[in-house]
Write a structure and sequence with these properties.
Largest interface: A-B, 100 and 76 residues
Number of helices of chain A: 13
Strand content of chain A: under 5%
Radius of gyration of chain A: 19 Å
Oligomer: heterodimer
Structural class of chain A: mainly alpha
Structural class of chain B: mainly alpha
Number of strands of chain A: 0
Number of helices of chain B: 5
Largest sheet of chain B: none
Order of helices and strands of chain B: HHHHH
Distance between the termini of chain A: 38 Å
Shape of chain A: globular
Number of domains of chain A: 2
Distance between the termini of chain B: 45 Å
Largest sheet of chain A: none
Order of helices and strands of chain A: HHHHHHHHHHHHH
Helix content of chain B: over 70%
Helix content of chain A: over 70%
Number of domains of chain B: 2
Radius of gyration of chain B: 19 Å
Chain lengths: ~240, ~100
């Protein structure tokens, strides 16, 4: 294995993920603020981010605990928000499945929205990478995303209530996700998947435990797969916009 | 707050379990074509499904549709799609939100 190439994959991962620092930073701070406002101590807030390391689920859990929901409901709802992680795991397995078990465990722990999106887009754009290069790229992506997630959570907990809510920080999350998927809508199948997923998620938003998200996501995936199947092998060669 | 630690540890184990499910159990065994074809669209399906309700019914406004947030989302989507730029999309969305916070419409 060429160590030079592996190191360059690592640094390419760091570079590609660097923009996410501006997403993870405010988002983690926001969680720190929200969690301390809900009565969690600094240590509890930090451990939440270290142990769970899943932004949307953490927000869901803190919000429900604030509403005094039963612990079982909190757990089920938060894990339902995280069901998409199983899809990420399945989606990244063709690329990182050959790794030894402990490395797969490490990847699983660090597999969050941003690390998944940045990695899978690169793996698909450069299919000729070795598994070692892909793993190095993934760890490169993790570097500016996961440690800052812990640090900025702590920082946010310290800052506490001094972040003014009228700054529109709540909208950092949707904008970040849009910025992630919009450049990836390169074929008709991708676009159809995105539109159907969004519409179905809205139509089924009334379902409890964030099941609307799951309905939308599954409908989108089925749509994308079906459009690709009908378009035959041409699907991935169609020019984007 | 003992319940808090049950939630933290339960969510930690549950989240890791979900993330490890396929990576750990499937490993490098080949997966069928139809499954791989679906998995190619995971990212572009999950993220819009996650975002759409947040854009249309923002939590900050108590679920009321907000023209400013719709505009910010549209700006990010268009810039990201047309220029294939993550920075550009974040910048466009942030610019609309900042303009909305400081300009009295």
């Amino acid at each position: 294995m060429d160590g030079q190439q592996v190191m360059s994959s690592y640094w390419r991962g760091v570079r590609n993920a660097l923009p996410f620092l501006f997403v993870v930073g405010p988002f983690a701070m926001l969680f720190g603020v929200v969690a301390t406002e809900a009565g969690l101590s600094l240590f509890e807030t930090l451990m939440f981010s270290v142990v769970v390391i899943a932004g949307a689920a953490q927000f869901t859990a803190v919000q429900l605990m604030n509403e005094n929901a039963p612990t079982v409901v909190v757990l089920i709802s938060a894990l339902a928000v995280n069901l998409r992680m199983a899809m990420y795991s399945a989606s990244i397995t063709p690329h990182l499945g050959p790794l030894p078990l402990w490395k797969r465990g490490l990847v699983a722990y660090f597999l969050v929205d941003q690390t998944y999106a940045a990695s899978v887009i690169d793996f698909e754009a450069r299919p000729n990478q070795t598994v070692a290069q892909k793993f190095a790229f993934f760890m490169g992506v993790v570097t500016p995303i996961c440690p800052p997630w812990y640090l900025f959570t702590l920082f946010g907990a310290w800052v506490g209530e001094s972040v003014p809510s009228e700054m529109g920080l709540d909208f950092v999350l949707p904008i970040a996700f849009i910025a992630l998927f919009a450049p990836a809508l390169r074929t008709g199948a991708h676009r159809a998947a995105a539109v159907v997923a969004a519409v179905m998620a809205l139509l089924f938003a009334f379902l409890p435990y964030n099941l609307g998200l799951m309905v939308g996501a599954l409908a989108g995936m089925m749509t994308g797969a079906e459009v690709e199947r009908r378009a035959g092998m041409q699907a991935d060669r169609r020019p984007g916009a | 707050m003992n319940d808090l630690w049950i939630v933290i540890i339960g969510m930690g184990l549950g989240s890791f379990g979900l993330r490890f499910l396929f990576l750990g159990l499937v490993g490098d065994r080949a997966m069928p074509d139809w499954l791989l074809r679906h998995l190619r669209y995971t990212a572009v399906a999950v993220m819009p499904a996650l975002v759409a309700p947040l854009v249309v019914w923002p939590t900050a406004t108590g679920g009321e549709t907000d023209p400013l947030r719709l505009t910010a989302a549209a700006a990010a989507l268009i810039v990201g799609y047309v220029w294939k730029s993550l920075y550009g999309a974040v910048g466009a969305g942030a610019a609309v939100m900042i303009a909305g916070a400081w300009l009295p419409f």
